[in-house]
Each structure stands twice: as C-alpha cells, then as structure tokens.
C-alpha cells in the first residue's frame, strides 16, 4: 500500500467524462497518479494491469453495477473503495457501505473533500498494513494467520471480506477486551466516513456466520449486552 500521495495510484471509474476529468485533475494536483475507466469491464482490466492503491467508483455504470463491481473487487483485492454516487438516501449509503465500500461521497461533491477522503482512506490502509505484525491464533477448529490473514475452519479456507477480516483482527489482538460499536466503527471505518453504526452489527453478524459453528450461540465473538463485543477463545 502506497503511503505517500505522490506514489499512490488512484483508479477512477466514472462514465461521465466531465466528472471523470475533474476528479483526475484534483488527484493529479494532490500528487497522486491517476488511471481512469469508463465502465466496469475496463475497470477490471485496469485493476489487473495497474494494481491501484485505491478506487474511486461510481455506482451507476453502463455495464456492471458499481455495487456488483465492488463485490468482485473484494473477492480478489484488499484496497480501499470510495463510492461516488448521485444516490443520496440513507438506504443507498448503507447499501453501498454494506457492499464493502470504505467510504461514500454523494454528487454533487466538492473535489477537495474527495481528495481528503482519499488521503484519509490511504492513511488507514497504511496503518493496517503496519499493524499486521505476524503470529497466529488457533484452536481445534479455527486457525488465523495474523500475517497473511489466512482464516481456516478445520483446515478449509474461509472467504472473508476486508472489513470482516479487520474486525476479526481487532478482536483477536485484544482477547476478552470489550469494544463498543462506536469504537469498532471508529477504528475500522473512521469518523471521516459517511455511514451508520448498524453497519458494524451487520458485519459482525456476517462474520459469525462464517466462523462460528452456531452463530446464534457463538464461541468466539460474544455480545456483551449494553457494551459491545469481545473475542473469547483459548488459542
């Protein structure tokens, strides 16, 4: 992950030429490299070839819906995604963030604010990379490599989305420590994001479905009523 803006490469996926040129101009002025795509197919080709550090992604694309494209990205790449969309309702913002975007900016927007969001998300991604200090956690059922962040259940890989991995890592590194929903939201999404703390609960629920034998009676991720969540297990 590129930490300095002068080395970070931003992929801008936007079908409106005028908006695309405006975003590129501001990214270049901020010292970023910029590559552009007009649709989802072109974006996927550029992802393979250019390996960007962050994606600015329009939701309403002419071929692949931006939400679907974000899902495709998340299955193969662990890089920040910022949605830029004319869809402004709270339900649209929540849908975008639950699709595993890191941030959501509504049109019309101030390009300088978008640049600030890009920088903030790159900083958070860089800090996460530095904090992955190695080691492993395991019991008779669950294995987590804290360096590669491979997650196995009975030896079989578990496909986790980036935010699910980040939540699991946060809890694993602080066993038996209770984190409030607000604390988890701040650490993983950051207060610069436009979101809803319900997003944390949705991700915890999905994470439990993937790693717990019985999500309704979890062994690892426990709810502490009135406070939040904690990881409990003997590795």
TrEMBL record:
Q: What processes does the entry annotate via GO biological process terms? A: regulation of DNA-templated transcription
Q: Which residue numbers delimit the DNA-binding region?
A: 132-233
Would the keyword Transcription turn up in this protein's UniProt record? yes
Specify whether Cytoplasm is a keyword of the entry: no
Q: Indicate the transmembrane segments per the record.
A: none
Top-level division of the source organism's lineage:
Bacteria
The record's Gene3D superfamilies line, in alphabetical order, gives:
3.40.50.2300, 6.10.250.690, Winged helix-like DNA-binding domain superfamily/Winged helix DNA-binding domain (1.10.10.10)
Q: Which residues form the Response regulatory domain?
A: 9-122
Q: Can you say where in the cell this protein is located?
A: Cytoplasm
Q: Enumerate the GO terms in the molecular function aspect.
A: phosphorelay response regulator activity; transcription cis-regulatory region binding
SUPFAM superfamilies to which the protein is assigned, alphabetical: C-terminal effector domain of the bipartite response regulators, CheY-like
Predominant subcellular localization, coarse grouping:
cytoplasm
Q: Which residues carry this modification: 4-aspartylphosphate?
A: 58
Which keywords belong to this entry? Answer: DNA-binding, Phosphoprotein, Transcription, Transcription regulation, Two-component regulatory system
**Residues in domain OmpR/PhoB-type?**
132-233
- Any one of the GO CC terms: protein-DNA complex
Q: What InterPro entries does the record tag this protein with? A: CheY-like_superfamily (IPR011006), OmpR/PhoB-type_DNA-bd (IPR001867), Sig_transdc_resp-reg_C-effctor (IPR016032), Sig_transdc_resp-reg_receiver (IPR001789), WalR-like (IPR039420), WH-like_DNA-bd_sf (IPR036388)
The protein in question is named DNA-binding response regulator
What's the source species for this entry? Paenibacillus contaminans
């Amino acid at each position: 992950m590129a930490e300095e803006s002068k080395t970070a490469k931003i992929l801008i996926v936007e079908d409106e030429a005028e908006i695309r040129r405006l975003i590129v101009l501001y990214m270049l002025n901020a010292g970023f490299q910029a590559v552009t795509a007009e649709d989802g197919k072109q974006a996927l080709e550029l992802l393979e070839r250019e390996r960007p550090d962050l994606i600015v992604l329009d939701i309403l694309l002419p071929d692949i819906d931006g939400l679907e494209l974000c899902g495709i990205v998340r299955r193969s790449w662990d890089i920040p995604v910022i949605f830029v969309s004319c869809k402004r309702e709270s339900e649209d913002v929540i849908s975008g963030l639950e699709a595993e975007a890191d941030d959501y900016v509504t049109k019309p927007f101030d390009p300088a604010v978008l640049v600030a969001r890009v920088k903030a998300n790159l900083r958070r991604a860089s800090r996460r990379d530095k904090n992955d200090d190695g080691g492993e956690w395991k019991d008779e059922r669950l294995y987590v490599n804290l360096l590669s962040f491979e997650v196995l259940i009975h030896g079989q890989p578990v496909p986790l989305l980036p935010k699910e991995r980040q939540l699991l890592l946060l809890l694993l590194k602080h066993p038996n420590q209770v984190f409030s929903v607000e604390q988890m939201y701040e650490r993983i999404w950051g207060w610069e994001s436009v979101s809803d703390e319900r997003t944390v609960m949705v991700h915890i629920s999905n994470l439990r479905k993937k790693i717990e034998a019985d999500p309704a009676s979890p062994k690892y991720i426990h709810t502490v009523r009135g406070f939040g969540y904690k990881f409990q297990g003997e590795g």
